[in-house]
Amino acid sequence: MKCGILDYGTGNIQSVQNAIEHIGHRVIRSSQFDELEQADALIFPGQGAFGPAMKTLHRLNLIQPLRQYIESKQPFIGICLGFQLVFDGSDEANDAQGLGCLPGSFKRFESNHLSVPHMGWNQIDATNTGSVLDQFNGQLFYFVHSYYLPIDATTNGATTHYGVPFTSAVANDTQLMTQFHPEKSGDLGLELLTSFLQSVS
């Protein structure tokens, strides 16, 4: 399978490419959407800040094609910042709108006894999501983030608890979007990527 990785200047893209190639898929890595459309699935990774990332997507004229691709339910993986940018917005950048493909806005973790960012291994609760996530209920994945998506009854996804419960992943038949990093989650993360890509191939 040929996977297109959207390269828009944020961190962590090489580790995503390494993971995808490790599980036997070819990679197209580009900031040009017409090149990425030649792939069988699009991967939207990223580490960094919400506002600057949206500015970069605007500068590269990626907003509209990316939004159309996601809303058309073509095979898609969004990871960490690439998960957050799919939603409406974030307290990290009140003057920046997200892609708005899914409803919701991210809040900053506020805690007197927990470290921020939330960094390390944590468990996901994925029951009755009707997606590949159900296979990984109760498993540990690797997180690095300071902002979280509050649980909304309209968003049927996996949840995790770190001071507060939050939505840690959303998936359907053709899309997988995770706050955690599958590519940094060892064999289990690779298994999740493998299972999803097999399901859309």
Task: Itemize the secondary structure elements and their pairings.
Layout lengths: L1 E5 L6 H10 L3 E5 L2 H4 L4 E4 L5 H10 L3 H9 L4 E4 L1 H4 L4 E2 L14 E4 L9 E6 L16 E6 L1 E4 L6 E6 L1 E8 L3 E4 L7 H15 L1
Parallel strand pairs: 1-2, 1-3, 3-4, 4-12, 5-6
Antiparallel strand pairs: 6-9, 7-8, 9-11, 10-11, 11-12
Briefly summarize what is shown.
The chain has helices spanning 13-22, 33-36, 50-59, 63-71, 81-84, 186-200, and strands at 2-6, 26-30, 41-44, 76-79, 89-90, 105-108, 118-123, 140-145, 147-150, 157-162, 164-171, 175-178.
Question: Any key phrases for this structure?
Answer:
201 residues; alpha/beta; Rossmann fold; ten-stranded mixed sheet; two-stranded antiparallel sheet; 6 helices; 12 strands; 29% strand; globular
| CATH top level label | Alpha Beta
* Assigned CATH architecture: 3-Layer(aba) Sandwich
Order of helices and strands: EHEHEHHEHEEEEEEEEH
Number of helices: 6
- Describe the largest sheet: 10 strands, mixed
Structural class determined from secondary elements:
alpha/beta
Low-confidence stretches: none
The number of E-state strands comes to 12
- The overall average pLDDT, rounded, is 95
- Percent strand equals 25-35%
Number of domains: 1
What fraction, in percent, of the residue positions are helical?
A: 25-40%
Radius of gyration, in angstroms, nearest whole number: 15 Å
